[in-house]
Amino acid sequence: MTSRCRVVLIQMGRAPEDISHVFGDQGEWFKCALAPEHIEFNVVCPADGERLPKSEDFDIAILSGSWSMVTDREGWSEITRKWILEVLPSGKYMLGVCYGHQLMADALGGHVDYHPLGREIGLKTVTLTAAASQDPLLENLPRQFEANLSHEQTVVTPPPGAVVLASSAHDPHQILRYGPTAFSVQFHPEFTPSLMRACIMRRAYALQQSGVDVNEVVGQLKPAQYAHQLMVSFVRHVVDELKISNSAV
Predict the structure, then answer these.
(1) Does residue 190 carry a catalytic annotation?
(2) Where residue 108 sits, what CATH number does that domain have?
(3) Among 45, 151, 170, 190, the one annotated catalytic
(4) CA distance 92 to 68
(5) Which of the residues 35, 49, 64, 236 has an alpha carbon 20 to 30 A from that of 189?
């Protein structure tokens, strides 16, 4: 096994051009968010017809957010859904983010649909459940922390056996764990305040029409350090596990 942690981002489609022109595409967001980590980072975009990796070709798979909807059942998304079910039994680590969170839950038998209360957007408070105190990735986080959110669909019902580790006032399923190596988050640990602001402002008129005070939401933005820390801690955990595995060889 390689001594470097091999991370593959499964990029679920492309960002809109007005976003990618300024901030790059999603692969760059995650790479920058994980920059301090000693990893080998690659990006695969199934929406562009790129082939999903074999389980032996990576240590961690991160499934990104998307501007698509899981319930649209796009071909590339359904291929990825099947791939999730093929890869998870191998014991490889997997993290789902926003769309990736929903797709993992959907693949494992949960129910995903539009949130009955509408969109959740901006910097919101995430609250850990009692079960989180027993989770090695979350035990050092504060009981409440802020995270960037932008989603219309949600995990309405988690898959059988999934453990709910966090909620928000809007959404009860902010973090789900599916087993020792797989968990997912509804929020965006890779988002910076400037990226979150751009995502809000590009749809400002529609948000205002739906009753959102855009100026208030934008005015509340700031770095979401603990949400970011969670993703970094996940990668560090795998790096440590690889070191242990390599030293035992």
Answers:
(1) yes
(2) 3.40.50.880
(3) 190
(4) 26
(5) 49
Condensed to tens digits (0 to 9), the pLDDT of residues 56-114 reads: 999 999 999 999 999 999 999 999 999 999 999 999 999 999 999 999 999 999 999 99
Q: Is 188 a catalytic residue?
A: yes
For residue 195, is it within any domain? yes
What's this model's pTM, rounded to 2 decimal places? Answer: 0.95
Q: Of the residues 5, 45, 98, 199, which is catalytic?
A: 98
Domain membership of residue 248 (yes or no) is no
Q: Is 5 a catalytic residue?
A: no
Of 120, 188, 199, 228, which is the active-site residue?
A: 188
Can you name the residues that pair with 177 across neighbouring β-strands? 163, 183
DSSP string of 49-92, one letter each residue: TPPPPPGGG-SEEEE---SS-GGG--HHHHHHHHHHHHHGGGT-
Distance CA 28, CA 34 (A): 10
Burial category of 15 from C-beta neighbours within 10 Å (exposed 0-12, middle 13-18, buried 19 and up): buried
Q: What domain range is 99 assigned to?
A: 5-242
Both structure tokens of 189: 């640990």
